[in-house]
Write a structure and sequence with these properties.
Length: about 70
């Protein structure tokens, strides 16, 4: 199986995609449970702290998030 590495937007840890939780920002940030939602996505670690920080970052700095996503691709 192909390993897909993504970066947590909260703590910057690089992990396999399967170890991270994907959030998609459409009108409001929501967890992307099936991995197929459209919109700007971001990955965070599967823990409360990173989820919380990640959501705050998405709300406050959407442009920064955009840059981070571009860098990690
Ligand atoms: Zn993290």
């Amino acid at each position: 199986m192909k390993r897909v590495i993504r970066t947590c937007v909260s703590c910057g840890a690089k992990k396999e995609k399967s170890e991270l939780v994907r959030f998609v920002y459409s009108e409001k940030p929501e967890e992307d449970t099936d991995g197929n939602r459209h919109g700007r996505g971001a990955y965070v670690c599967d823990n409360e702290k990173c989820r919380d920080t990640g959501l705050k970052k998405m709300k406050l700095t959407r442009s920064l998030l955009c840059n981070q996503l571009r860098r990690t691709r």
